[in-house]
Amino acid sequence: MISLVDVTKVFPGMDHPAVDGLSLDIAAGEFVVLVGPSGCGKTTTLKMINRIIEPSSGEIWVDGVAATETPAFELRRGIGYVIQQIGLFPHRTIAENIGTVPELLGWDRPRIAERIEDLVVRVGLDPAMLGRYPSELSGGQQQRVGVARALAADPPVLLLDEPFGAVDPIVRFQLQEEFLRLQEELSKTVVFVTHDIDEALRMGDRIAILNVGGILEQFDTPENILSGPASEFVADFIGGERGLKRLGLRTVGSVDLTRGPVVDVRSDVETARDAMAQYGTEWVALLDGDRLLGWVWGEDLDGQLTDLEPHSFWVELDPESTLRKALNAVVMTRSRVAVVVEDGIYRGMLGLETIAGEVDQ
Ligand SMILES: Nc1ncnc2c1ncn2[C@@H]1O[C@H](COP(=O)(O)OP(=O)(O)OP(=O)(O)O)[C@@H](O)[C@H]1O
Ligand SMILES: [Mg+2]
Questions:
Q1: Do both 70 and 14 map to the same domain?
Q2: Are 329 and 314 in contact, with CB atoms under 8 Å apart?
Q3: Is there an atom of ligand 1 within 6 Å of 14 CB?
Q4: What ranges make up the beta strands (E) of 233-290?
Q5: Residue range(s) defining the domain that contains residue 302
Q6: Rounded to 10 degrees, what is the CA torsion of 281, 282, 287, 293?
Q7: From first to last of its 361 residues, what are the pLDDT tens digits of the chain?
């Protein structure tokens, strides 16, 4: 869908290129993240894709057409763009901001209004905000408007330059989550810029890591980058905790869970001891039917299991939880396991060995 072939940009008066011999092939529906330190040429690369900046040499193809030979206005019709710092028009209302491109394309009013109403809900904004001005919105809300505006004419390609840059980590996490959900529905071809490696690992199908001077250090999946950084620069850039970051990419549902030492609360003490012996633990978990009640120490087993007060596992995971979250669950409970529950039903458990084994591979 997007192809950069040996693209170089040298700005007038600069002795070093801002982007140097960059080649990238991006498939339709793929989510590619450009990441790298400040000044490494991320914004310049995006702006070359939609012809705000002309490359000094090399070729850029968008949907089979040479970008350099397509009139800029025509090219941009198929490309939604969120510029760095959002860049909403301050004197236009939220509705007018979102409707900018459809209006330029000459859509009739009812169609524009319908599109705005649809988008505002999709990006999680209250339709009551449509009449306000950008300065009357929070940073996170403005970023949602930026995304809505880029999506307005339903372009197949989206270029997003640090779209969630100016918000706190919690809002940022929410925006990432919502955008991923939206992308699942829309399947746009996305080029997303960030300087936050964790955001890149979370969002990207593939990540292009750029060094200063616009030099491509590695272009690969998050998993491959974490398991095999191509250079010292990449290893430094992804930082410590590589193992933890890899665990953050896998879900609990992708590994084999064990049943664990688990018995129904109506069982007798002997059955509970057998379960402990089978798994070599000093504790046993109690179930009421499919529902997990908690766990008890073997030494407290006496009389009826129903008379015991089970300890909580504290963190219950579901199949969508990451292995990183599972590791957290393991260290949060004295039983040293993470339990998995789906819709209230006990599914199984996993311990440190299983989690560590997933990073070994
Ligand atoms: N219009 C311009 N004229 C001259 N130099 C420019 C121009 N735009 C960018 N540059 C230079 O090109 C290099 C790359 O800039 P660019 O904006 O692409 O970086 P970036 O990776 O987006 O950085 P950041 O993470 O800070 O946004 C920088 O050294 C910058 O100073
Ligand atoms: Mg930039």
A1: yes
A2: yes
A3: yes
A4: 262-264, 283-288
A5: 253-360
A6: -130
A7: 999 999 999 999 888 999 999 999 999 999 999 999 999 999 999 999 998 999 999 999 998 888 888 888 888 888 888 888 778 999 999 999 999 989 988 899 999 999 999 999 888 889 999 999 999 998 888 988 998 998 998 899 999 999 888 778 888 888 898 899 989 988 999 999 998 999 999 999 999 999 999 999 999 999 999 999 999 999 999 988 888 999 999 999 999 999 999 999 999 999 999 999 999 999 999 999 999 999 999 999 988 999 999 999 888 899 999 999 999 999 988 889 999 999 989 999 999 999 998 887 6
As a whole number of angstroms, the distance between CA 156 and CA 90 comes to 27
Most informative mutation of 40, 164, 192 for ligand 1 (most atoms within 8 A of CB): 40
Report the atom number in ligand 1 closest to the C-alpha of 36: 21
214 CA closest ligand 1 atom index: 14
Q: Which of 24, 33, 343, 44 is nearest to 183 (CA)?
A: 33
CATH code of the domain covering residue 33:
3.40.50.300
CA atoms within 13 A on the CB side of 109: 0
Find how far residue 274's CA is from the centre of its chain.
44
Is the domain of 96 the same as that of 190?
yes
Same domain, 183 and 267: no
Nearest to 197 by CA among 322, 85, 37: 37
Using the atom order of ligand 1, give the atom closest to the CA of residue 9. Answer: 12
Q: What does the longest C-alpha to C-alpha distance in the chain come to?
A: 85
Which tokens in the block code for residue 56? 């000094």
176/310 same-domain check: no
Clarify whether residues 193 and 340 are in a common domain: no
